Amino acid sequence: MMFSTFLQATSSVSCLKSTIGFAISMLAVSCAPAPNLTQTPTVYLQQDYPANMIPKDLQTTQPKLYFMTDRFLSDEWTDQEPYSSNRSPSMAFGEVTVSFGKDKSWGNLVQSSESKERAKDISLKITDADELIRFPSTPLLFDLSNTSADAKNDPAFRTYKKREMEFKNALSNLLKQSNKRDVVLFVHGFNNEFDDAAYAMADLWHFSGRIGVPLFFTWPSGAGGLFGYFKDRESGEYSVFHLKETLRLISQTSGLDNVHIIAHSRGADVVTTALRELLIEARGAGKSPYETYKIENLILAAPDLDFGIVRQRLIAERFATAFGQVNIYVNKNDGALGIAQKLATGQRLGRLRSSNLEHIDKAILERAGNVHFIDVENSGSSVGHSYFRQNPNVLSDIALTLQSSAKPGAKERPLLPLAGNFWRLTEFYPFDIRPEGFGQPEVAERVGN
Q: Which residues contact 141 (CB under 8 A, 6 or more apart)?
């Protein structure tokens, strides 16, 4: 009897492992694309890529992108993978140079950025990576009064404050060189390594017209293995404080006008958790979160968030009042989120439909007026989990948002209105008719999201 029970339990564990293994493999497969420049957004098939709006120094096929990370250094530093998936208690700010195609001229890159069909793929490659500022490890020394001279005279505390000033000075100088005094901040999702985040940032920034300062926050995801999803989930929680510090420093930088945040998949959980805590902190100090942190656009792409938790931790906290607008890209057929939904048993925000909302949700969102759900289901064939950078229509809408901060339904963003706060990307968005040469072949994807 006992042996039979043991066999039954062993069989159940084996079945669970198989189920989780299959689920995790499916989550991984439907994620990041190979490191080539993504397809040209539909918007540039009938209008010019805004090359004339880009400062001369940024008109290059070897631009610099910037990062903040709490990943631990790799055992062997390489330009492609300078940091590992292990956690570091210390933040680092740095820069990477990303090459857009081998021996490609700026003029050729612009031409390719307006073409549906390219004679040759434009490879993306990190050719140089440098760490510029290393912060002391956290937590720092403190006492109950938080004003102790002993704490403020602690060497780590003084060094931390010095590094804060160095970061703000560096960012202020970068803002002066930009066409907009904005920061575009990207936060990646599950199973991404350092280079995945850099290449996603390259796609987003280039096709937005290279506006502002491109900064990606890369947290220690990419654990891999059978339980990699759950390890990454906890690593995201680990990084919340460091992301809060990053957002504080950005908002305090001289010359900053606006911040635009793009968060994908599990990155949406890291971002919204950090923002929620900052929102509460600002309100507690009698300040406006919107004026304090200057976040004009918060973009959540395929967010891997439990909607029940969103209702109680974000909607109930009047989360949306802290931003100019919140754009949430959703697809009920997102396979990766479907598996996450089964594993976690909660409706995922990135698969939300209007019918999932209760009456009070609809009333709150309608009154807020700045939260927009954008359905990508019928927006061409490339609607896997990484559609935010793979689908030319979705990428067009993100680019138009970053360029104009226009709301859905404005002439700059002619989305199709649905019920309530829901909108739809049409097949040829942002155009009413099929652009010349329009077509959307499937894009192969690799592990990561």
A: 150, 151, 154, 156, 157
Query: Given the structure tokens 């499916």, which residue do they identify?
Result: 26
SS3 177: coil
Evaluate whether residue 440 is within a structural domain: no
Range of the domain at 302: 2-424
Q: Compute CA distances 74 → 77, 88, 132, 193, 236, whole Å.
A: 5, 11, 16, 11, 19
Q: pLDDT tens digit string along 421-446?
A: 999 998 889 997 666 655 544 433 33
Question: Residue 375: inside a domain, yes or no?
Answer: yes
Tokens at 90, concatenated: 């210390």
Angle, alpha carbons 37-43-49 (nearest 5°) = 65
Nearest alpha carbon to residue 187 among 263, 242, 266, 269: 263
Decide: 323 and 407 in contact? Cβ < 8 Å.
no
Residue 330: which CATH number?
3.40.50.1820
8 Å CB contact between 45 and 114: yes
Render the burial of 120-153: b for 16+ CB within 10 Å, e for the rest.
eebebbbeebeeeeebbeeeeeeeeeeeeeeeee
Distance CA 393, CA 382 (A): 9
Residue carrying structure tokens 């439990």: 306
How would DSSP label each residue in 126-151? EEEEEEEEEPPPSSPP--TTS--HHH
Site of tokens 């920061």: 183
- Which tokens belong to 118? 């390219």
3 state DSSP class of 125: strand
Query: 153-163: per-residue pLDDT in tens?
Result: 889 999 999 99
Total number of domains constituting the chain:
1
Report the alpha-carbon angle 18-24-28, nearest 5: 145
Which of the 8 DSSP states describes residue 418?
-
Residue ranges of the chain whose pLDDT lies below 70: 1-34, 146-150, 226, 378-383, 433-449
HSE on the CB side for 430, CA within 13 Å? Answer: 20
Q: Which of 369, 263, 361 is nearest to 310 (CA)?
A: 361
